[in-house]
Amino acid sequence: MNRKFAAAGGLAIVATLSLAACSGGTSETADPGASAAPVTLTLSGWSLETTPEFQTLADGFEKETGNKVELVEYDPAEYNTLLTADLGAGAAPDIITQKEVKYVSTLVAGGQLLDVSDIEIPDSVSGAKSYEVDGTQYGTPYRQDSWVLFYNKDLFDAAGVDYPDGSWTWDDYDEAAKALTTADHYGTYEHRWQSTTQGFASAQEDGDIFSGDFEYFADSYERRLAREAEGDQIDFATSSANSPTYQGEFGKQHAAMLPMGSWYVATLISQQKSGEADTFNWGFAPIPQVDDSTTSEPVTFGDPTGFGINAAIDPAKTAAAKAFLEYAMSDDAASTLAGIGITPANTSDVVSDAFFSVEGVPTDDLSKFAWSTHDTKPENPTSDETAAVQTILGTMHTEILMKSKSVEQAIADAEAAFKAL
Predict the structure, then answer these.
(1) Which of 50, 131, 387, 410 has its C-alpha lying 20 to 30 A from 231's C-alpha?
(2) What is the pLDDT of residues 282-313, one digit of tens each?
């Protein structure tokens, strides 16, 4: 899932980026007067040396309100397990970073998250619904990565292929992948994660992973298998055996296109500066759509990352903790995150200006449109059944792309496994 991806790779890069100028203001409800006197809050996080967003928000909040935030570091690979254990033992931090939204329902069922429905969420903030359970808000997003299409302008120019223009459907993508493929590189690279194929189908076909009807995945898999058969992208079996990274495939120009989350912007800029990636002209565009009916607001997917409040927090700290959640969604905080290459949940014009002022970020109109305008559906709907269903779909993904089963048989078997849950 995409937050796992970022913890494993993309977030390790952003610390090298310079800060852009920030502007805007926080909401009045995040006023320092929310607490009678400054307090010290604790906040869970991971990989603190290479994930600067936590300290960035802590520093900004202290400057804004006088309240301090101390970070509590967890192993990123075991984050949810360790955090859940600390919550059960009464030893968890005051503010809980929600790394994966599929665990929100579990924490709510355990009575471990505070109701924060009284927090005002700006209209420019996306992803808030992922923290709502039965009409009650149990967290707020501070970042929202969305999947877009990265493309190598130099390879497009060499092949005489027009750049994406915001109107592409998957048919256009397939045609471009074929036209861009040469003996030296593939037309596109699609990584091994199940979300790379399934996420778009669920978002754009209005699919429901809890329906038990998985037929809507068929077209996406048939297209991917066809591209592999034509040699327009690396086949899944070879990719699984050799384990190429998506950063290396696109960054070293082994592929002309790359569907990937917006966190890769920061990674690619940093790797081009360090020499880990080749120097070439690039941009990013809206992900291709099923048809032209959604091109004005492209449909894509991506899970938010957010903050919740420990239900066992000292009541004297509650107001300050809520003020931190509000601050993290503000223009000031989001602009600061944008300045280090993070994609905030708040994508107001002020925040967009901050993001595109970072050196190396493409500033063409289409890249700006792709970053700020989209209907981002959650990859992992908030439910206590999400983890089990995604495991079934992960098996289906591997069976189809390893060609151990036909698309039809793998889907049928996944539907049967769902019914057996």
Answers:
(1) 410
(2) 999 999 999 999 999 999 999 999 999 999 99
Whole-number pLDDT of residue 36: 62
pLDDT tens-digit series, residues 84-116: 999 999 999 999 999 988 889 999 999 999 999
Cβ-based neighbours of 349, under 8 Å, separated by 6 or more: none
Does residue 171 sit in the same domain as residue 81? Answer: no
Torsion over CA of 366, 370, 374 and 380, rounded to 10 degrees?
160
Residue type, 10: G
Q: What span, in angstroms and rounded, lies between the C-alpha atoms of 69 and 142?
A: 16
Residue 26 binned pLDDT confidence (cut-offs 50, 70, 90):
very low
Distance CA 280, CA 180 (A): 16
Confirm whether 380 is domain-assigned. Answer: no
Q: What is the extent of the structural domain holding 263?
A: 147-298+385-419
Q: Cβ(383)–Cβ(193) under 8 Å?
A: no
* Residues 31 and 44 reside in one and the same domain: yes
Residue type for position 91: A
- What is the distance between the terminal CA atoms of the chain, rounded to a whole angstrom? 22
User: Could you tell me which of 302, 301, 284, 258 has the C-alpha nearest to residue 166?
Assistant: 284
Task: Say whether pTM exceeds 0.90.
Answer: no
* Integer CA distances (angstroms), 129 to 164, 306, 378, in order: 31, 11, 9
Helix 331-338 to helix 53-65 angle (10° resolution) is 150
* Helix, strand counts (H, E) of the chain: 17, 12
